[in-house]
Model the fold of this input.
Amino acid sequence: MKQPPHIGYLLHLADSALVLGQRNAEWCGHGPVLEEDIALANISLDLVGQARMLYQHAATLIGGNCTEDKLAYFRDGSEFRNYTLLELPHHGPLAGTAAANRDYATTIVRNFLYSAFMLLLWDALQAHEDAQLAAIAGKSVKEVRYHLRHARDWLVRLGDGTEESHARTQAALDHLLPYTQEFWSGADARTASLQAPWNAMVDEALEEATLQRRPSGGYVPRGKEGMHSEHLGFLLAEMQGLARQHPDAVW
Amino acid sequence: MNATLSRDAVQRAWAVLESVPDPEIPVVSIRELGILREIHERDGRLEVVITPTYSGCPAMGQIEDDVNAALAAGGLEATVVLRLAPAWTTDWITDAAREKLHAYGIAPPQHAAAGNVVQFSRRAATPGNVPCPHCGSINTTETSHFSSTACKALYKCLTCLEPFDHFKPY
Done:
């Protein structure tokens, strides 16, 4: 089947939204305080909603009997094109897979780094030549500014907070920042042009949060090419299990 | 169906859908919220255009069902179309609906003026511009950016000490 050229890009955007939506939803019922529990669930709802619109659009372009559910539930890990950053557990390096081992600083730092990036990207994608993608971007940009405001507020509060909250937030930043190299590696011109404004947003927030930005280097993740960390499989198993065991189930 | 009949059908559809309430905030209708965008006739069939609020709003499926049920009860049949652009904005909420929200205990949204997206996210909760819907005091504070639904933030009045929801500008 001949696919329009940007199907892969739509799936990359959709997978990123879905995988982070699924990750953040792990806090549902386990948030550090009730308000944060609700906030993370609401942010997940937005992300899953954005993923659905993107999958629906991709399914329409692919045609045949493709549906949003097929794209979300019946593709394997190596077919997912999300950034590796988004599939990592809510914990520092060498985390087990136990979902109970969650660190809120990791959650906040990831949401900050990613929503700052997506704010710029959705804003730019409103001018995309695919009118439906531009329309999705027009809605998503309104949502991601609230996600960023939430994450940025907490980044500052935790970074410029107690000795422990500062140390944990700095550790989360040191752990996650190198994964953001994937935003820029082999990026198209539209995305590449966002690196300078993204750096400015990050640096400004880190300064206010009294956090140090250490130089990134080493391995550049390749999740957007389908080469993922060991963590994606566990996430997908949980997310896709029901749909695969009961493929024709209806709500 | 001839043209005269369909014009009548469009008017009847508006009359029927006018009163369909929002499933989450039933004091206002989907028309007043700006969710119901258009009703027209296409190829001899009624078409109702609705637009989603937040991308993930779980009420959208319910709204579509409610629209279909209301039309069926009015003896009408229509295709319901979901349109994304232009993106829904809280600026479309009518003045009457704002008053209803206020009376219901939800502080209505301020103007959504897009402005600079980066500056928006840097500005933390802006105190003073969300008056308490219970006592009218402007001495209020944001408890949480998110509340019972994605479209609301949780506030507290520092004068009467009552918590309340604020419909966020979108």
